[in-house]
Write a structure and sequence with these properties.
The chain is mostly helical. The chain has helices at about 1-15, 25-35, 40-45, 65-80, 85-105, 135, and strands at about 120-125, 155.
């Protein structure tokens, strides 16, 4: 899913600012940065944590963290009289939410954390192959003839 975040961020940002050409470049920069922002935890995941904790369990994949950050930024900009920059907060928050939504298709996201540890995903891709990305390429069971997902299903992750 990682390679989907940048194009999705581009399309979302373009949709938001389509009639505001004067802010297109800075809006695109904000949109693309925040379309990837939740995955900045990958540096910690690989370099410090040694891949012991699923990176979707870090705070960068907690929607409440991003909501709080956006709310504090809106408050700070409003108090500073810089309301013209609020559009950028909206673009950033929208791109983070899009990132988390896209992750929720085939990966677990704890949308209600810290109030609940329930993990949400649309389909579950079983870890059967190495390297990890082959699981997303080879997850279709073509033996059934209908392309059903093997071992997955639709609903909540465990």
């Amino acid at each position: 899913m990682f390679i989907a975040h940048l194009p999705a961020g581009y399309l979302l940002t373009r949709g938001i600012v389509r009639k505001r050409e004067t802010i297109w470049r800075p809006a695109l920069a904000v949109g693309l940065i925040f379309s990837l922002a939740p995955d900045l935890d990958l540096f910690y995941f690989y370099l410090v944590d040694g891949r012991r904790t699923p990176h979707h369990d870090y705070w960068t994949h907690a929607p409440l963290f991003w909501l709080a950050a956006a709310a504090l930024t809106v408050l700070a900009l409003s108090l500073a009289g810089k309301r013209q920059y609020l559009i950028f907060v909206g673009i950033a928050f929208a791109n983070v939410l899009l990132h988390l939504f896209l992750n929720s298709i085939a990966a677990d996201i704890r949308w209600l954390y810290p109030f609940s540890d329930i993990r949400f995903n649309l389909v579950e891709i079983p870890a059967r192959y190495q390297p990890w990305y082959l699981n997303f390429i080879l997850h279709l069971d073509l033996r059934s003839g209908d392309g059903d997902l093997r071992g997955g299903g639709v609903g909540l992750g465990e």
